[in-house]
């Protein structure tokens, strides 16, 4: 799913076997209690991904931040509420843990995503800036 | 410094003694090898802050991301290159650790900051969206 759009296809490598770098990252994420990598399943098939990260922060009076990354839903079954269900789970999870805010970045070209997050209450208050280090 | 601008003054609490929440957050950040909280000093006085975070990620082929938060320079001595020096240190540090990209968000209203990060090579490719959980 990460590779299954125009932006993702340029930066992911979906092949058998998957590059080992994915497995290494998975192990690191899995071992860290501040990270949760979740999938949505329908009939035993993985149809969505979401990476929830908790970030202790010195700003916001030392308030805990929650960040989501890698939110994807299978192209064939979008608009069925799977993305919203995953995000509502993440928001609930973040509230339970006492996070003060949830943050994410989304590419400027993903207009559907902007509307999706706005419907969930997110505000387009910031710019997301990236620097490639490769 | 976090409280010393229009946005910060609304969300920080700078008083003696500082709210305990700051100390609790500091301990958590300090104990996590994926977090580095650094300050810039001039003549023994703290004049800048930067919070560097390493995030293992399942996207970008499992590539490590570096994220910066809470970048601030003392109002009285801006434009002397202290911010650039801190950022260059962070970028170097992220490269050494093998991070594939560095990411940050900055409020839409901070136009000086946008130019500052663009000069360092950052691209305004994303929107940063926030949801208050309070």
What do these coordinates show?
Two copies of one chain form a homodimer. Chain A is of the alpha+beta class. The first copy, chain A, has five helices and five strands, in the order H-H-E-E-H-E-H-E-H-E. Chain A has a four-stranded mixed β-sheet, sandwiched between helices. In chain A, strand 1 and strand 2 form a beta hairpin. The mean pLDDT of chain A is 90. Chains A and B meet through helix 2, strand 2, helix 3, strand 3 and helix 4 of A and helix 2, strand 2, helix 3, strand 3 and helix 4 of B.
What is the percent of helical residues of chain A?
25-40%
* Oligomeric state as shown: homodimer
Number of helices of chain A: 5
Residue stretches of chain A low in confidence (pLDDT < 50, at least 5 long) are none
| Distance from first to last alpha carbon of chain A | 23 Å
Strand order of the largest sheet of chain A: 1-2-3-4
Strand content of chain A: 25-35%
Summarize the structure.
Chain A is α+β, with helices and mostly antiparallel strands. Chain A contains five helices and five strands; from the N terminus they run ααββαβαβαβ.
Q: What attributes does this structure have?
A:
homodimer; 134 residues; 34% helix
Write the layout of secondary structure elements.
The structure is a homodimer of 134-residue chains.
Chain A: H1 6-11, H2 20-31, E1 35-42, E2 45-55, H3 59-62, E3 65-73, H4 82-96, E4 101-107, H5 111-119, E5 123-132
Parallel strand pairs in A: 3-4
Antiparallel strand pairs in A: 1-2, 2-3
């Amino acid at each position: 799913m990460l590779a299954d759009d125009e932006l993702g296809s340029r930066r992911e490598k979906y092949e058998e076997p998957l590059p080992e770098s994915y497995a290494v990252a998975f192990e690191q994420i899995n071992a860290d209690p501040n990270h949760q990598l979740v999938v949505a399943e329908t009939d035993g098939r993985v149809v969505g991904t979401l990476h929830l990260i908790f970030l202790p922060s010195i700003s916001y009076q030392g308030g805990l931040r929650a960040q989501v990354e890698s939110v994807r839903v299978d192209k064939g079954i979008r608009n069925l509420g799977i993305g919203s269900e995953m995000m509502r789970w993440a928001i609930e999870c973040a509230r339970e843990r006492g996070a003060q805010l949830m943050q994410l970045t989304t590419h400027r070209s993903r207009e559907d995503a902007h509307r999706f997050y706005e419907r969930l209450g997110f505000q387009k208050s910031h710019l997301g800036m990236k620097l490639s280090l490769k």
